[in-house]
Specification:
There is one protein chain. Helices cover about 50% and strands about 10% of the residues. It is of the alpha/beta class and about 525 residues long. A hairpin with a 4-residue loop joins strand 5 and strand 6. The protein starts with a helix and ends in a 5-residue tail after the last helix.
């Protein structure tokens, strides 16, 4: 372990860089609370989306890296702000008229439009936990509503009342003049309507721990800041939570970056030490718009898992967290194939290379072997040209190419075959467009067909690829990219495709000859797809 720790201390993988920043907090003494706390926040105003998963996955990667370089125990806390008021009814839920009656009430008090839980907040919390459990995360879950009501935040709330003026001095500097006039870091819950009130305080008594405000019925009302009678505005809430729990690491999207000094200063005012922060770039949909829980745009976790295994999503989250990522269906095949490329490379790497390999961080060092003897992108192409309706059809091709592969010995390949058929039906078949070849392409395809008819080299993907290259070169395709584009568009009905030699080896020489014959006879372009 000492040797691995030394290597980890020098690793340039971003989780180790962040872990070393956390460790530096305790270079003089270990934490008084007995552990290092990693936290993620979740606003359950809508269904959990893939960005929420990414935050927990990436934080877990930093936590695992920390556990290599330190013996200090760790915890991961997933904190849900279900005390936040419902600002708008999400577009992607049923029974919206029922929810509309609960606008501005804490999410933990809004009826569940799905009718399965005691509140909308509880429903979304359950969804989040189900998603996180699917990936095997080790975490503790925290509900803001429960923390406020049970007294777990009482000490920091009473301190906030005592140091109200100091907190307000920080906040007022960040607000426009008209907002300053009505702002308070405390948001009382109306005793008469149950709504979260954005009203100025008439009095804050730090000694008694109470606030006085005008309730919605027009009466002056005094309530204690404890017992779930108030919540904190979201910026002060960040700092208060850090101070109350002793958070050591929290990451969030770049929209929070301008507020980080505010969060940190309020944490210090309330007696805490601001954690190490990591700011990641946003997740975008296919149109470049930010993914929103309420809009439901972009990929959901369930949608990704319909077409690929969980590890491929973790791989996608690991790569370049400070680069904006478009979350749309086309990214899935590449993520699957790149993940398995890294799995195959891992056994031959030295310790330093392994710690820089994404699969180490995905699997916490317990890295499995890849059974994907056929790339996912290739499975998609075979599903396309064969019109596969089930994974058994693909296995017929796979076992001709790799006779020793089978669903039991290669469970990841078996799952991928099923995913490929589903992905093909949903996202490839509806968009396939075949075109007829021009005279130059027709001549080259005829030549390729004749060479395949005389082929005696078996399913040698590299030799077949060399032959395909030779045909393109001899027929004057310069650059050769134009030749391969023609193969994809004429034979596969797509603008991009696999290494064509590998495709022939897997699909079969005789089957490829038939495919070319049908293209030359204009049968492919005349149909919706291959027969």
């Amino acid at each position: 372990m000492t040797d691995l720790r030394d290597v980890a201390m020098a690793s340039k993988a971003w989780p180790f860089e962040e872990a070393r920043r956390v460790l530096k907090r305790y270079e003089k003494a270990p934490p008084e609370k007995g552990y290092v706390l990693f936290e993620t926040g979740y606003g359950p105003s809508g269904l959990p989306h893939i960005g929420t998963f990414g935050e927990v996955a990436r934080t877990t990667m930093v936590r695992r890296a920390f556990e290599v370089i330190s013996d200090i125990p760790t915890k991961l806390l997933c904190f849900s702000d279900d005390m936040d008021g419902l600002r708008r009814v999400p577009d992607n839920v049923p029974n919206q008229e029922v929810m509309a009656e609960s606008l501005q009430k804490p999410l933990a008090h809004v009826p569940d439009p799905f009718g399965t839980h005691e509140s909308f907040g509880a429903h979304n919390n359950a969804m989040l936990r189900r998603f996180l459990d699917t990936f095997g995360f080790e975490y503790e879950f925290a509900s803001a509503a429960e923390y406020y009501a049970s007294g777990k935040l009482d000490a920091v709330l009473l301190r906030a009342a005592e140091r109200y003026d100091d907190i307000m001095a920080v906040m007022l500097k960040s607000l426009r003049e008209e907002r300053q006039a009505t702002y308070s870091c405390f948001l009382p819950i109306s005793p008469t309507t149950g709504r979260v009130l954005y009203v100025p305080m008439k009095d804050v008594d730090g000694a008694k721990g109470t606030v006085t405000f005008e309730d919605e019925d027009g009466t002056d009302t005094t309530v204690p800041v404890t017992g779930g009678n108030v919540k904190l505005q979201w910026k002060p809430d960040f700092g208060a939570r850090w101070a109350a729990l002793g958070v050591d690491f929290e990451m969030y999207g770049k929209e929070h970056a301008p507020n980080t000094p505010i969060y940190g200063r309020i944490c210090e005012i309330l007696g805490g030490k601001a954690p190490v922060n990591f700011t990641y770039e946003l997740f975008l949909d296919q149109n470049g718009q930010k993914i929103s829980k309420s809009m439901g745009n972009g990929l959901s976790i369930d949608e990704w898992l319909t077409y690929a295994a969980t590890e491929s999503l973790s791989y996608f989250m690991y790569a370049k967290p400070k680069t904006a990522k478009r979350m749309h269906f086309d990214v899935i095949p590449r993520a699957v194939d790149e993940y398995h490329q890294q799995l195959r490379a891992y056994p031959g790497q030295d310790a330093a290379q392994q710690l820089n390999n994404p699969v180490w961080h995905i699997h916490g060092g317990d890295v499995p072997k890849s059974g994907m003897v056929v790339p996912f992108s290739m499975l998609l192409n075979i599903a396309s040209v064969s019109g596969a309706e089930d994974r058994e059809t693909l296995w017929g091709f796979i076992q001709k190419y790799a006779p020793n592969a089978n669903p039991t010995a290669n469970p990841d390949l078996d799952a991928a075959a099923g995913h490929a058929v589903t992905y093909y039906k949903d996202h490839v078949a509806p968009h396939k467009t075949f075109r007829t070849p021009d005279d130059k392409e027709r001549a080259a395809l005829g030549d390729l067909r004749d060479r395949l008819a005389a082929w005696e080299g078996g399913a040698d993907a590299e030799a077949l690829q060399t032959m395909v290259f030779a045909v393109g070169t001899e027929h004057g395709f310069d650059p050769l990219r134009g030749w391969f584009t023609a193969l994809y568009e004429v034979l596969l009905g797509a603008s991009q495709g696999p290494r064509f030699g590998g495709f022939i080896a897997l699909y079969g020489v005789a089957e490829t000859i038939d495919l070319i014959d049908r293209a030359l006879a204009a049968k492919l372009s005349a149909e919706a797809g291959p027969a």
